[in-house]
Design goal:
By secondary structure, the chain is an alpha+beta fold. The chain has three helices and three strands; from the N terminus they run αβααββ. 22% of the residues are buried.
């Protein structure tokens, strides 16, 4: 499971790196072709723990971008 989360974190990181804007979880799921939002969220947790991403929240959702 940990290896899968790490692999998915790489997919999410690359998607964010290639994007010109911050992305929502739904957008990340679509771009990375991960099966579930849970998979995206686990990958985001990995990247957050490593200090690689920033979150921006609104009332309805949050977006994620790479920390530069």
């Amino acid at each position: 499971m940990i290896e899968t989360i790490g692999t998915n974190a790489g997919l999410v990181w690359r998607a964010l790196d290639e994007s010109s804007k911050a992305l929502t979880v739904k957008e990340l799921k679509r771009v990375t072709k991960l099966r579930t939002e849970r998979d995206v969220n686990l990958a985001l947790g990995w990247l957050a723990k490593e200090g690689k991403i920033d979150f921006d929240t609104t009332e309805k959702e949050f977006t994620v971008s790479l920390r530069r």
